[in-house]
Every structure is written in structure tokens, then in C-alpha cells.
Amino acid sequence: MDNRTAARKIIEAALAAVDPYRSVFRSLTAIQAQRIFVVGAGKASARMAEAAEAALGDRIVAGWVNTKYGHGAELRRIHCHECGHPVPDEAGVFGAQQIANLARSAGEGDLVVVLLSGGGSALMPLPAAGVSLAVKQETTRRLLDSGANIHEMNAVRKHLSAIKGGRLAQLAAPAEVLCLILSDVIGDDVGTIGSGPTAPDPSTLADAHAILRRYNIPDPIPEGSETPKPGDPVLNKVCNLVVSNNRAALQAAAHKARNLGFHTLLLATTISGETREVASMHAAILREVCVSGNPAVRPACILSGGETTVTIRGAGKGGRNQEFALAAALEIADLDNVLVASFGTDGTDGPTDAAGAYADGSTTVRAANAGYEATRNLDNNDAYPLFEAIGDLLITGPTRTNVMDIYLLLAGPATEERKP
C-alpha dihedral over 31, 35, 40, 45, to 10 degrees? Predict the structure, then answer.
């Protein structure tokens, strides 16, 4: 089996393992409440809502979920509303207001089920008093371009919002709240996923101000009330439960790779940092496999996951996973029978229709033959047209799940002329 066929099978196994339907359904089957409100936001919220409808049936009084354009589903009892991501839009504000209204309408003895997944921060944009959507949009754009990590971005978002940082749970009180979470952050911190609308917020106004100063971004955060903190009694009736994550995807991928005959190592689920530097490190590991048989002998599969950041320097088209693949391609240009795949489990990478890209030892040569110079495209953050030209974009379409990114390194058997 060639590396690309193997990679596709491994990727399919990873995505199947983190389809949120099964884990959400399982988490709701023991629920006894008779009046249930379902709200949520994220790239996986429509799929999660399908499971909620199947598990809870006519006990759902009303429901509303916000999801990214193109990631929706036909639902019976829960309204599925599509809106902007990663930059919030007016549709998102409208939907977030409906979510807030439903939370407020719940009373003592009711249950509010919150379905939260990656993208929830941008997809549930209810600005704090005195903050306009335009200001939130500009601040989000500046943070995305700055290289700020997800924890820094969400600390700012919480303090620009009337619904994040525990405030959605605050609106739902005194009803009970069960938040089911598909994690898209390293460490599965429930206060960071979707900016923690039902979780206590350990970050402060001072923290948010400092982050904006660090990245030289104008500070629009209004002074005033803080988000609910750990120990706040308003959160006493809240249960936050992570139902799936990056590790689940990687474990399924590793199992599939072993079944395909690869000596397999699951390296880490906590990969972060500047994309190009992380890609270079992974390329070095792949080179070591080829040179010495460490940390795995050929045929080898090395898996890792997490979420890197790109500091925008150019004006090209791409995303962090395509940039990862292009940076790796430059480092593996002389290696035989190897493959690097980097992809976002949600099926989208940056503002493109690709989930990521493939790279191998011939990528830079094939790109040159198509009229592209890999180093120049990398410098301009312009990976998409290069990979499109050589047919190496990794396109899945919307997966309706989201558990960060997966990095896949394959080293097939050495060819006869390259064997020592």
C-alpha cells in the first residue's frame, strides 16, 4: 500500500473516532429532567444537536445552536443557525442573543444542555455593553494575525462578551446546566474551549489588557463587571463534561496505522508553537527514522496533535496546516518514500476549502515544475496555490467535528537503491 492510501485510511479512522454523535448521545441517555433547553455553538454543534434530539426527544422545550456556514444540519426541535467564523458577523450576534434569551427563560427545576465545540468563541459573539460588533471583529482579526495562542485570544474574548467566561451559566441560573464539550484546546481546559461560557474564568480584566498591549492591539475592553470566578455560587449547578478530544482521534489513528503494518508511535497531543518551527521539528524526526530507525523503524508512522500558530508575514492564501506541510516539504526534499500530512479535524484550514495538505520528498521539485518556488510561497504565507497546483491539498469537506489538528509522518520501506 502506498503512503497516500495509508494516510487516507488513517485520517478516516481518526475522524470516525471523534464523530460527536455517539459520545453526546451516551452522555444524555441517563438524563431525568422533563423540561430541557438545548443551546450551543461551534463547528460540531449541529452534529451534537442531532444526538441531543435523538436522546432527549420531546423533553426538549426549545433549542438553538450556532454553527459555521456550511456546517449545519436539518433538525426537528433545535434551530440550527449558520454564521461567521473565524471572524464573527451579525448573524452570529443574532444567534447568540437567541441563545442568551433561551438561557434566561429556564427556571428552577429545568435543565439547560449546552453543546460546545471548537469555534464556539467566534460563533457565539454577544458583545459586552459598550462594545460594537465591528470592534470585536477588528480585535479578532488582529489577534489572529498576531500569533497569539488560543488561551490569550480567549482571555480577551471573554472580557469583550456578555455570554462567555461563565456568563451563559450565569444567565441560566437557577436552572441546572450540563455542558457537553468537544475539546479543541491543548489540555482540554473547559475555561478555554469556546471561551468557557459555562466555566469559571480565572483570567482577569488586567490579564486581557496585558495581552492586547503585548501584541500592540488597540484595547476596546470596557471597565466594569468581572466574569464569574472559581468558587462563585452562581456556578454551583453547572457540570462541564469533555466528551471527546484530540487524544481520542490520535489513538484511533494509531490503532489503524498498526493494523496497516506500520511501527507506530503516538508522540504527543500537546503540540504548539510557531508552525514553521514545529514543522521543522517533525521533519527532523522523520529524517531520524530514515537514517537510524529511531524512534521507530520503517515502515513507520509517527503521530502527534495540537494546534500551532502562524505569524502572518505575507499576503498569500493558506492556513496553519498547509503552512506546516510546506515548511516540512523543504526539510524532507531528499528523503525517499516518506509522507507528511497536516490537517484540521474540522475540515477547514484558515480561510480555505482545504483541511490541510500532503508533502513528500518530491513536493518542492513538482512545485518548481508547476512554476512555484516553495521558499517564496512559504515566506508569503501562500501555501494553498502551490499545493493546489500539484494536487496535494487535503480536502475532506466539513467534518462536523473539531478536535484540533493532527500531524502524520509516514516512512514506508526504503527502496532498493536507497537501502544501506
Answer: 60
**Cα-trace Rg, the chain:** 22
Check if the beta carbon of residue 345 is closer than 8 Å to that of residue 403: yes
Q: At 339, phi and psi to the nearest 5?
A: -150, 140
Domain ranges of the chain: 3-14+247-418, 20-244
- Over range 301-326, report the average pLDDT: 96
| Distance, CA of 310 to CA of 62 (rounded, Å) | 40
Q: What is the pTM of this model?
A: 0.89
Q: What is the DSSP string of 152-185?
A: HHHHHHHTTBSSTTTHHHHHHTTSEEEEEEE--S
Q: Tell me what percent of the residues of the chain surpass a pLDDT of 90.
A: 90
Spatial distance between the Cα atoms of 381 and 383, rounded to a whole number of angstroms: 6
What is the layout of strands, in order, in the sheet containing 405-411?
263-271, 300-306, 405-411, 338-344, 356-360, 393-394
What CA–CA distance (Å, rounded) separates 61 from 134? 34
If one looks up domain 20-244 in CATH, what number appears?
A: 3.40.50.10180
Tens digits of per-residue pLDDT, 31-90?
999 999 999 999 999 999 999 999 999 999 999 999 999 999 999 999 999 999 988 899
Q: What is the dotted CATH code of the domain comprising 3-14+247-418?
A: 3.40.1480.10
Give the C-alpha separation, 331 to 283, whole Å.
Answer: 6
Average pLDDT, the chain: 95
